[in-house]
Amino acid sequence: MREKHLKLNKRRMGIWDCCELLNEHVDESDPDLDEPQIEHLLQTAEAIRKDYPNEDWLHLTGLIHDLGKILLHPDFGEEPQWAVVGDTFPLGCAFDDAIVHSQYFKENPDYNNPLFNTKNGIYNEGCGLDKLVMSWGHDEYMYQVMKLNNSTLPPQAFFVIRYHSFYALHRAGAYSRFMNDFDREMMPWLHTFNKYDLYSKSKVLVNVEEVKPYYLSLIDKYFPIELRW
């Protein structure tokens, strides 16, 4: 999947264009969301903006955090939902019980591979989360899109985007043994963000045209006009 998608040769478009393209999709893994994706993105961003008015990077992080779900779109390979959304987790070490539906890992060949089924597997404690190979999903794809297109968002934004679906870590504390000082410094922002990701999905629709100019100004501040996807 990394080989397939990280060449970033599918399309050139801006961040807002991607929001509108993603609008054609609803995430089937989300139990309480039947609006199109752009509503969730703006609800998250606006809820954060209300509580953290001075952290404009966090508002934009709310807007873009799920743009990796564009992998569901026919122009991007129309990947199945299970390969794009849902929990992410490290590969190369034992699967933790904190991962949702972890009982099904018994059918994964890595489960019985002695290289990968010990507590630390191929890693060392304290190695840093960036050393872990995470399961593929919309988090890793969007993180790489930001990185490879030279976004100037701060490290906190990159961290939030990359790990916001890593629920075993930020809900249950699993795999925290791999964190380093940088990760520990970033974690409070991830916990802050996830409160909004999970609980900002109100049925109150955001007036897209009303808030659009503000978010376009943030996109212009932190991203090139056109990105490779």
TrEMBL record:
It catalyses: myo-inositol + O2 = D-glucuronate + H2O + H(+). GO terms for biological process: inositol catabolic process; L-ascorbic acid biosynthetic process. Pathway: Polyol metabolism; myo-inositol degradation into D-glucuronate; D-glucuronate from myo-inositol: step 1/1. One of its GO terms (molecular function) is iron ion binding. Its EC number is 1.13.99.1. Fe cation binds at H40, H65, D66, H138, H164, D197. Binds 2 iron ions per subunit. GO terms for cellular component: cytoplasm. It is found in: Cytoplasm. Pfam families: MIOX (PF05153). Its main location: cytoplasm. Its cofactor is Fe cation. Keywords: Ascorbate biosynthesis, Cytoplasm, Iron, Metal-binding, Oxidoreductase. The keyword Cytoplasm applies. Belongs to the myo-inositol oxygenase family. This is Inositol oxygenase. It comes from Ceratopteris richardii (Triangle waterfern).
